[in-house]
Write a structure and sequence with these properties.
The structure is a single chain. With 285 residues, the chain is mainly α. It has a single domain, classed as Fumarate reductase/succinate dehydrogenase, transmembrane subunit (3 helical TM bundles of succinate and fumarate reductases, Up-down Bundle), CATH 1.20.1300. Helix content is 71%, strand content 0%. It is built from twelve helices and no strands. α2 packs across α5, α5 packs antiparallel against α6 and α8 packs across α10.
């Protein structure tokens, strides 16, 4: 019959899907990554500053899972999985045409895969994927996951980063995410017609490069700051400050008591139990 086509659903809707894929990489995925790295880098101002930011996020309470799924996880899955579909339909050709734009074409796809795998692992490593006791205690923790406790934010994140292999994975993952976003903004501008002339593309390239370098510095600063909070006296001080903040917030009625979001003494370095007792003794009764 005239007008019929044997093209797949993906092919028939390729234009729309590619535009949605491009847009989702900037909003909300890219925007969330910027906010996430900026929030994490606040640890450079001390564990107390970082903890306040984490409390602000968790003040959403019951709405937090909905916000995470609608604005973070679903867009990330769409962007990542459809990105892999796009990659499966193309071949890198740097060996035939080793010019700068072609190398960036390949790097955009390589970093996209690395970033997606890193994010999936990062969520498991820090949060364990599923917030269910049977999964967290029976599976995730046994596999090295669910290391982060939001009410002991800096200390648990710091402890989770003490392995050399883990910190290298985070450095590679963060840099892959940053390059993919910065270079993706440049290519997105071309795709959407924001900069089409060679001169406009050069200017946009300079801006995206500065943006990427700046975001990479912020991301690495966050990693360094958290890693430092997981060691020696800095760890003990971080735990003391976190527990003081928790006790004060609960006593003031700002925060609902939630021991599941706190690290237990057995989950931290020796000395945490004493720090908890000291913090409790100092808190108002």
């Amino acid at each position: 019959m005239a007008g019929e086509t044997n093209d797949s659903w993906l092919v028939r809707h390729e234009f729309l899907l590619r535009r949605l894929h491009s847009l989702s990489g900037l909003i909300p995925v890219g925007a969330f990554m910027i906010v996430h790295l900026l929030t994490n880098s606040s640890v450079q101002n001390g564990p107390g500053a970082f903890q306040k930011n984490v409390y602000l996020i968790h003040s959403l309470d019951a709405l937090l899972p909905l916000v995470e799924w609608v604005f973070i996880f679903i867009p990330i899955f769409f962007h990542g999985i459809f990105g892999i579909v796009i990659i499966a339909g193309g071949l890198p050709n740097t060996s035939s045409y080793p010019n700068a734009s072609n190398i960036r074409y390949v790097l955009q796809r390589v970093t996209g895969v690395l970033a997606f795998l890193f994010i999936v692992w990062h969520v498991f490593h820090m949060h364990g994927w599923i917030h269910a006791d049977w999964w967290i205690d029976g599976v995730a923790k046994n596999l090295g996951g669910a290391q982060f406790k939001p009410y002991n934010a800096a200390s648990t994140a710091g402890l989770a980063l003490q392995s050399f292999v883990v910190i290298v994975a985070y450095v590679v993952g963060v840099l892959a995410c940053v390059f993919h976003l910065a270079n993706g903004i440049w290519t997105m501008g071309i795709t959407w017609g924001a900069w089409t002339s060679p001169a406009a593309q050069r200017r946009a390239n300079a801006v995206c490069t500065v943006f990427g370098v700046g975001l990479a510095v912020i991301g690495l600063a966050a990693l360094q700051g958290m890693w430092a909070q997981g060691r020696g006296e800095a760890l003990e001080e971080a735990i003391r400050i976190e527990d003081q903040q928790y006790n004060a917030a609960v006593q003031a009625g700002i925060l609902k008591p939630n021991e599941e979001k706190r690290a237990q003494p057995s989950e931290a370095e020796p000395g945490r139990e004493a720090s908890v007792d000291q913090a409790s003794a100092r808190s108002p009764r």
